[in-house]
Amino acid sequence: MFSPQGPSLRELCVQALSSVEHGYDLLAPKFDHTPFRTPQSMLDATTRALSGLGPFRTGLDVCCGTGAGMGVLGALCQDGTTGVDFSSGMLGQARSAYPNASFVRADARALPFDAGFDLAVTFGALGHFLPEERPALFNGIYRALRPGGLLAFPAGSRPPVTSIAHWATLGFDLALRVRNAVWRPPFVMYYRTNTMQEVSRDLTATGFTVRTVPLSPPGYNLVIARK
């Protein structure tokens, strides 16, 4: 499915009926051949937007997956990069792709870092956290950053109700809510539970100063939260 190297429909169904952690362990070897990986154009746009805000010594990719964001950090950070994820399968792929980086297996809701990073990024991961879990995520990132450090991540605008994207994301979220109501363990991945207003509110409550800058493609902004 998606490409000859990507997962089959059966493999995706097995993943969808697993926990988030085990599901990504199963998907890891083929993840980079799916549309779920952050597009390189988005990664490049993020690098350009952050390039004038440094210098950055050390960087942290939160929920790094197979390591898409590690390339962004590698281009910006002078003294080393670290990726953190709770899927051992995804971390294995990331270690192979970025052998000079450091990787830590941990739950992003309980990050084991203290004031060690100048820049933190995350790509496509917020949907894995329920609204009530965002404060723990943001508090952990806040602790991980040095004073003045930045958290940055791309965020898309809510698609208009007349668009295909609106109905696709709505249908996906509804299907997962039904799945999680009747099947355990749950698989948390929602596209419509992280509005910019709500995310900004939680970041500000954590102690961040928040602003956004436009990215390409149109309709996307880079959220920049400074400690």
Automatic annotation (TrEMBL):
MF annotations from Gene Ontology: methyltransferase activity
Signal peptide: none
Keyword S-adenosyl-L-methionine: no
Alphabetical list of Pfam families matching this protein: Methyltransf_25
Ranges of residues in domain Methyltransferase: 60-149
Keyword tRNA processing assigned: no
Alphabetical UniProt keywords: Methyltransferase, Transferase
Identification of the protein by name: Methyltransferase
Originating organism: Winogradskya consettensis
